[in-house]
Amino acid sequence: MRFRPSILSTLVLFSLAAGFIALGQWQQGRAESKERIVTAFAQGERADTLPVQPDPQAFTRVKLSGRFDAGRQWLVDNQVHQARPGLHVLTPFEVNDDSGAGRTLLVNRGWVAQGPDRSRLPDVPSPPASATIEGFLAPVRTPGIQLGEGPGAAGDDVEWPRRVVWPDLDTMAQELGQPLYPLVLYLDANSPAGLDGRDWQPVSMGPERHRGYAVQWYALAATAIAGWLVLATRRRTN
Questions:
Q1: How far apart are CA 89 and CA 110, in angstroms?
Q2: How many other CB atoms sit within 10 Å of the CB of residue 234?
Q3: Residue 99: which of 142, 53, 156, 56 has the closest Cα?
Q4: ∠ CA(194), CA(199), CA(202), 5° rounding?
Q5: Cβ-contact 114, 85 below 8 angstroms
Q6: Which terminus of the chain is less hemmed in, N or C, by CB atoms within 10 Å?
Q7: CA distances (Å), 10 to each of 6, 104, 179, 226, 238, in order?
Q8: 3-state class (DSSP) for residue 24
Q9: pTM for this structure?
Q10: Where are the domains of the chain?
Q11: What is the DSSP string of 25-49?
Q12: 66 phi and psi, to 5 degrees?
């Protein structure tokens, strides 16, 4: 029997196989990238003060003393903890150590439940005025898709606390009326002023999930090639 696959089935099935392989390689690349992030998180360096040149990928751990500004806080919407909807609380913290005097950064204190009425903001426990806190530095997390929130107000025009869907440090600095450190401190579980949900993870989807998706794409590529062989075999037996 002669091997005579059709040109159409060859083009279609091998195009599919090539696409599946490309998607598998993309997922494999994502897995490797996430692996580097997880490793950096586990091996984060420690610093006694805020780094002058912050590295958003270093997950630097710091211990800082200063004052919370409990009167001006942002509540980041659409945060889920233990299958319950809620908000993350971002509170300004003015560092008073020698090298960081006068610098203000936002502290993610954790999660609070939304409550049944979304028209009302939840009550947020106030942090102590002065505290020594520990945590790691990382970029502000932006959940979901940006829906085009309007420009922020400034100074006395802002109503506090302020609900936000897409936190942006430049906008928040404008609303606060003073510069903000370019990274956020994610409060450790044993630090004061913390709320629920402080089991911070560097990525929402781990590298093993991406590797699983890569295997699935490679399996689909193999299926496409196997289908081409079956069609070719059927053709030559007619």
A1: 6
A2: 10
A3: 53
A4: 120
A5: yes
A6: C
A7: 6, 62, 60, 11, 18
A8: helix
A9: 0.78
A10: 7-38+207-237, 60-187
A11: HHHHHHHHHHHHHHHHHHT--EESS
A12: 175, -160
Residue type, 106: L
Q: Which pair of tokens denotes residue 153?
A: 């107000």
Indicate the helix (H) or strand (E) that contains 213.
helix 207-237
Identity of the residue numbered 231? L
The CB-side HSE value for 75 (13 A sphere, CA atoms) comes to 24
- Which DSSP symbol is given to 129? S
- pLDDT averaged over the chain? 86
User: Which residue shows structure tokens 């409550």?
Assistant: 115
Read off the pLDDT of residues 194-226 as tens digits, 9 standing for 90 and up.
999 888 888 778 889 999 999 999 999 999 999
Cβ–Cβ < 8 Å for 107, 68:
yes
- If you search the block for the tokens 């998180």, which residue do you land on? 41
pLDDT at 72: 94
pLDDT above 80 for 115: yes
Give alpha helix (H) positions in 110-206: 169-176
- The pair phi, psi for residue 32, each rounded to 5°, is -65, -40
Contacts of 46 (CB under 8 A, 6+ apart): 60, 61, 62
Distance CA 197, CA 8 (A): 55
> What does each C-alpha distance from 97 to 68, 174, 182, 193, 209 come to in angstroms?
14, 24, 18, 19, 42
pLDDT at 182 over 80: yes
